[in-house]
Amino acid sequence: MSGEVWQIGEVAARTELSIKTIRHYDEVGLVVPSARSAGGFRLYTIDDVDRLLAIRRMKPLGFTLDEMRQLLEALDLVTSDDASAVELSTARAYLAACHARAVKACDDLTRQLSYAEELTEQLADFSQ
């Protein structure tokens, strides 16, 4: 393995995920570290960190662990040189559906944020 690797604490700081969450994603097979040190510590590459960041982005949009796994697999397929035409087509269709779902979730979150900001402004008038 070439390139820089990081231990879990460094990855937690880079991704703003807790060590417990990163370990959980390893245990469920979402992001398995690319290597282990001689002492058995998890070692993560930039690709592993990118996968964790993708998961972090999916979480507030309501994706389940299984949906996250499927989305990551679809992303892997569309960047693979070994995928068949059928696999590519299926992966792209799934990614398009995920994109539409993400757009809707962002719209919903934007509306909720607007409500929260309205309440914050309303309460500011009474807290001075």
From TrEMBL:
A Pfam family that the UniProt record links to this protein: MerR_1
Keywords carried by this UniProt record: DNA-binding
Classification via InterPro entries: DNA-bd_dom_put_sf, MerR-type_HTH_dom, MerR_fam
Domain HTH merR-type intervals: 5-74
GO molecular function: DNA binding; DNA-binding transcription factor activity
Designated name of the protein: MerR family transcriptional regulator
